[in-house]
Amino acid sequence: MQQPQRLQIGKGQISGYISIFLSILALVSIVCFVFPEKLTTPEFREIYTAQSMQLLLKVVIVASFIFALISLLLSKRVKWALIGSGISAAAVALGAFTVEGSAVQKSGWYFGLDWMLLDILLMTLIFIPIELFFPKNTGQTKFHSEWRTDLVYFVISHLFIQFFGIITQKPAIVFFGWIGLDQVHGWIQQLPFVVALLLAFFATDFFQYWAHRIFHNHVYLWRFHSVHHSTQHMDWLAGSRTHFIDIFFTRAMTFIPLYVLGFSHAVFNTYIIFIAVHAVLIHANTRINFGFLKYIITTPQYHHWHHCEDPKYYGKNFASIFPFIDKIFGTYYLPGNTWPEGTGVHESQYPKGFIRQTIYPFTKSPFDNNLKMEDRSNR
Ligand SMILES: [Zn+2]
Ligand SMILES: [Zn+2]
Description:
Layout: H1 13-34, H2 36-39, H3 42-45, H4 50-75, H5 79-93, H6 113-133, H7 147-159, H8 161-176, H9 182-189, H10 193-217, H11 219-229, H12 244-261, H13 265-281, H14 300-306, H15 323-328, H16 354-359, H17 373-376
Helix pairs in contact: 1-4, 1-5, 1-6, 4-5, 8-12, 10-11, 10-12, 10-13
């Protein structure tokens, strides 16, 4: 296996990479201002203003130049600084400091490019320092052999936010839309905020638990979910590696209680923000000590055990928020402060790359004898 490329702190490499990363974000974001109908998300446009995004773009460009300078001073090598400041200069030349948001017409279809850029900026701000200063595997950095694959999953799942959103909400609307849920919604919405939020967490996690367990227990569905388990390098980006069928089914199941119970916007939005950060956290390469909290809410240690490569530990820790749900159904496993030796699937030649992994689950019949039942049935 290819050895992960190590990052050395204090050598100007990290600041160089940060400068390049920020400059690329700035350059790409300019097209969001030029084609807002097609490249920005209506739900997010209601939350942010064009002015706040213009300011953010300027901050990102200035930060990119500052990190380029730091890289130059620390490393005495011009390569990274030159690339970062070069791309940022191109962004400025293309109008990054003068570009303005225009009035937006409603569009039939769009890509969530704004969502992708904002989320990757936020996630890197949170998780790169955590993984750099409090890593679980000290030898592992973002630049392991398959980080590009995980990034492709991240990009696709964000760009196609409209497609994923519509499809995952459909089953709840089709099966429960006709019932007439106004009374239930009225009752839920008069609950205190914290109570409603905890109820949203519990109800969705209960549905998520069973959707997840079905994907493990059914041999054909496991082929789709095994994509998520195929990563050998657990880190903040690894959770993005999920087959689109897995995303549709699991999100559609978790959307059912949200739809039926009809939480307020405040509860719903808090839930979405929490899940967006927490789902990334539990995959992260960090051994930050969560103390007693690890018995109440799932942590990286908890979810890394779910990804354990050793078949002895298959079929544990399906819950994504509350460990007690696993306790109730007999699938809880959290041995002190120990971590799994390795993560990944127990087959040596798992397909690599986004396209191969997307096609792979469709390529064999569910009745194919070559499927190794013993590897999956107890997951
Ligand atoms: Zn799983
Ligand atoms: Zn996972």
